[in-house]
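Lecture 7 notes: from sequence to structure.
We start with the chain below.
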Amino acid sequence: MAEGVLLIVILSTTVFLNCANFLVDNTVLLSFFMGFVLGAILGSFSNALIYRIPINKSFIATKNIGIERSACPHCSKNLLRRDLIPIISWICLQGVCRYCGKGIGKTYVLLECVTAILGGCIASILGFTFLGVYLFLILPFLMSFILIFFRYKDFSMLKSLSLSMVGVSVLMFFISVYIPIFM
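Predicted structure tokens for the same chain:
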């Protein structure tokens, strides 16, 4: 298993180094790559929202109570930072928990991939303009909103997501008023 991970690292490093000059010359692909990485991170955050909201766990840190660490849904063991890398950690762990060996659902990595592709498309089409940044900020809440609704068909759970989307929208409105260069 360690040889397979080492091979993946060597191959990905080789591909990255061979493509680096091409990516620098081609800003659309570079934008897509940056958006893909950011989208994968936002997809991971969406997974946290989808898991925590239905069981009334907080996803916002407060003064007294920090955010609970991500844990395996089967054995409840806190995950290491290296286990939280979107898409890559799921592939390296072959879709199972490092501690208990039980399967981690494919829906987690699928949502991260879809959000990563959407992020890449947003970055390559809109760039990091006002609308692009707004869509990036609202993307995890929107993806979570849609998936929680289709899974549970319950609007009462969606209140915190709706308030978060309104908060991001209001924040972006004030930013657009006071920072016109951001347009």
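Points to note: The chain has a mean pLDDT of 75. DSSP finds six helices and no strands in the chain.
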